[in-house]
Amino acid sequence: MAADLSPRTRAAEPAGPRLRRASAATLLGVVLALTGCGGPPTADPSPPVPPATAPVPGGADATVSGIDALFLAMMVAHTEQTLEIVRLGLDRATDPRIRTLIAAVRATETDELSTMRGWLREAGPSAAAAAARHDHSGHSDAAAGLARLRAATPADADRVLLDVLSRHQRTAADLARAQVAAGTDERVRDLARRIDRSRTAEVDLMAGLG
């Protein structure tokens, strides 16, 4: 018997999938825009920020495509920029609390970068190529931030580093939240949730060190 394709039948589709599909295109625009890429300090060193990564499950379900692959490609580019900022920050920062924090950022994001690159490889050449076609170079202020950090005087280096890295990590959290709303692969959405929590915690810690 032929399937009933009447408007009444289509309207019976669960609201969740329909809303997610309807919002994906809008939120993709938000994702691209967000990556515009988008009290006295305590005496004790800041605690390391918990890693945002999780074990990668295997099997046939471990694939990504579409907006999930685009998010991964954009976050890979963003993370590579974070690691550039952190490397320079470790050369310039003098406050031991800040050095402790950015060392933890480096460890967390190095692991995440490896995970995301692996998932992009699993996505296959077509999905990875589609994501790679987006030019990430115009969607970040990392180059300007690195220039500011290089030009900062020794007395200002810690303050400039906190400002540059806070802005960069805030963008990552915003991008991750957009992916949670628009993404379709639950594994990638879970990583995005972890990234949101991790980057938000880092920004809060840096606010207390300024």
Provide an overview of this structure.
This protein is mainly alpha-helical and 210 residues long. 70% of the residues lie in helices and 0% in strands. It is built from eight helices and no strands.
Keywords:
210 residues, mainly alpha
One letter per element, helices H and strands E, the order comes to HHHHHHHH
> How many alpha or pi helices?
8
Mean pLDDT: 77
The residue fraction in helices comes out at over 70%
Low-confidence stretches: 2-23, 34-62
> Could you tell me how far the N terminus lies from the C terminus, measured between alpha carbons in angstroms?
69 Å
Shape estimate: elongated
Structural class: mainly alpha
Could you provide a short overview of the structure?
The protein has about 210 residues and is mainly alpha-helical.
